[in-house]
Amino acid sequence: MITEDREDTRAGVARDWIARARALKPRLEAGAPSIEAAKTMPPDVLEALHTARMFRMLMPRSVGGAELDPATYAQVVAAIAEGDASTAWCIAQTSPGSMIAAYLDPAVAKELFGNANSVFTWGFATGQPPCRAVPVEGGWIVNGTWTFASGNRLCQWLGGHTQLWDASGTPERLPDGRVAERTMLFPRAAATVRDDTWDVVGLIGTGSDTYAVTDLFVPSKYSVVQRGIGRDQQLPEGVRGEPEPERRETGILYKHSNQTLFQAGLSSVAIGLARATLDAFIALAKTKSPSIGNQSLRDDAWIQARIAQADAKISAASAWLVSLLREAWQECVTSGEISFPLRVKIRTACTHQISEARDAVDMIYLEAGATAIFKSQPFERRFRDMHTLSQQAQGGIARMQSVGQYHLGMKPHLFLLP
289 falls in which pLDDT band (50, 70, 90)? Predict the structure, then answer.
């Protein structure tokens, strides 16, 4: 049994997992055009990912998962993104969702996640009409539509975040006035999946489709606390939540909210994507001489400085988040939770990763000149992927608002604070 708070043990585990991810890079790079064309992973790529256990990083050991620490997980996602950003995005979307296994009855958790090839995801609930669940004997009747279900084409089960309504059509209210919610779990085969909605410029290979259910009966045992986040997580500063009775796993990983892992993983896709773009440009600069210049890119002092600048942006942003995630792990070991100031820093670091990575890719794309516009070159798809990624909620500078509020002594918005 792995001792979770042994730093030397975790370092060895991290090296193994990162090396495993990097070993997949050639296959992912070669398969990237096919992944984009099919909007999903082809069978050989998917088999390689399952063999390397890339979808099991955050699952409990009780169902055959790895229960990796978040710092290792973020670095593995970045390594996968060096090969293909869509593949890494699917892993970063499905893995935190699989943390709900920690909240399920063990038999149900094994049913959903016990198979070595199990993959699970959920999408975002559409606003109107609201996704809702009405209690009936033995479970719930569920109606709803969810969007942006990245990786759903790889999944056997899906989740749906739903508001709880009674039979008369009245929403159930919490003491603070918010509508009560739970996440419902159902086989993908029970949903209607629209695969014609994902028509986008980048991250095309994620197949982030829309799915819906109508009057679907979901037994009680297939529902879980909303978004798999315990009532003792994501609280305002100074508030100590009551223990979450539905969380059955006691590992250190599950003292982190899955929102922490969503943010760390999705933003780390940007880091791997930027690193791969820089590596490709370095290879190009060693051989390319612009037709209107009098020296090779390699010998151009401006290009030399730009390479260093891009490397600094990528490396510093990545190192900061990894350091914060290691600190968060230690806080969970010693106090059972991540302190509020550290949660604020993690929020900052995740958005900062995306911002710095995007700047690095833009810089490199510009310096690559006309070479960058050809689909046969390794820049065009990565440029599109980066600018699609940075449009996601994690990448918006508006996410920094709560951070600024905190530093100014105001009451910060809790939305997307890990």
Answer: confident
From residue 227, how far is each of 101, 196, 282 by CA, in Å? 11, 26, 42
Q: How far apart are CA 28 and CA 24, in angstroms?
A: 6
Distance, CA of 99 to CA of 108 (rounded, Å): 13
C-beta neighbour count of 243 within 10 angstroms: 10
Instruction: Using alpha carbons, select from 402, 240, 348, 418 the residue that is nearest to residue 410.
Output: 402
Residues in the chain: 418
Cis peptide, bond prior to residue 412, ω within 30 of zero = no
Percentages helix, strand, coil for the chain (3-state, rounded to 5) are 55, 15, 30
Contact 70, 58 (CB under 8 A): no
Tokens found for residue 406: 């905190």
Question: CB atoms < 10 A from the CB of 309, how many?
Answer: 14
Mean pLDDT of 251-257: 96
CA 157 vs. chain centroid, Å, equals 18
Structure tokens at 140: 């719930």
- Strand partners for 181: 163
pLDDT digits (tens, 9 = 90+) for 121-160: 999 998 778 999 999 999 999 999 999 999 999 999 999 9
- Is the pTM of the predicted complex or chain greater than 0.70? yes
pLDDT of residue 57: 98
DSSP assignment string, 82-102: HH-HHHHHHHHHHHHHGGGGG
At residue 3 the predicted structure's pLDDT band, cuts being 50, 70 and 90, is: very low
- Could you identify the residue written with the tokens 């975790």? 10
